[in-house]
Amino acid sequence: MSFTSEIWQKNAALYETIRTMPFNTELAAGTLDEERFRHYMIQDALYLIAYGRALSIAAAKADSPAEIVQFANGAQMAVVVERSLHADFMEQFKVTPDVFAATPMTPATHHYTSYLLATAWSAPYPVVLASLLPCFWIYAEIGSDIVGRAAPNNRYQSWIDTYAGEEFHAAVRAVIATIDRVAASASEETRNEMHKAYTRAAQLEWMFWDSAYRREQWPV
């Protein structure tokens, strides 16, 4: 069994919890409240800036030229390509630049991005990659799941098509292959830390979607 297969199997119940949570169930049905999606979209755009920074740090720590390019390109995709997608959504759902600029990170977004950046700066390269993997892999799996059960004329079809699309899935497969390669030469201690990092980031994925569904704000 590959290292990433082992990680996925170990966290299968957590993925199923994410797959069936109200946000994703209602998004697939096309019944998700627009305010909840708008909240998610703004927070996701804020998240992607930090995710791009973490990918850039991973590129700097990479142990081969090919992986420097892989994660530098990933950072570009996170900041440029996906934010372009968000710009289209923001126009569609009437989020003005002023509204976006005035919206702070929620506690869940702040927690998740702080965790990724702290891990990117402080942890060894294999552990950094494991912490970044859930955002790639879980989104790809959720996209594939939702596209198969999405309601016709779904108002969120563009989002679904993006994360179910082959271009995104090819990038995910490449990251998985890199992590399996890195894990193969890692010590048992490092592999254990990779497991912990993946699980924590997957838990934060759940928190991020749940906070969007609740339209979370700072309590004080």
Key descriptive features of the protein:
single chain, mainly alpha, Haem_Oase-like_multi-hlx, Aminopyrimidine aminohydrolase
Stated plainly, the CATH topology is called: Heme Oxygenase, Chain A
Number of helices: 11
How many domains? The number is: 1
> Which architecture would the CATH scheme give at its second level?
Up-down Bundle
**Approximately how much beta-strand content do the residues carry?**
under 5%
* Approximate helicity band: over 70%
The first-level CATH class is given as Mainly Alpha
Shape: globular
Low-confidence stretches: none
Major sheet attributes: none
Strands, helices and their partners?
Blueprint: H1 3-10, H2 12-19, H3 22-29, H4 34-61, H5 65-92, H6 97-102, H7 107-122, H8 125-149, H9 157-164, H10 166-184, H11 188-214
Walkthrough of the structure:
This protein has one domain: Heme oxygenase-like (Heme Oxygenase, Chain A, Up-down Bundle). 82% of the residues lie in helices and 0% in strands. The model has no long low-confidence stretch (mean pLDDT 93). It has 220 residues and is an all-alpha fold. The chain has 11 helices and no strands.
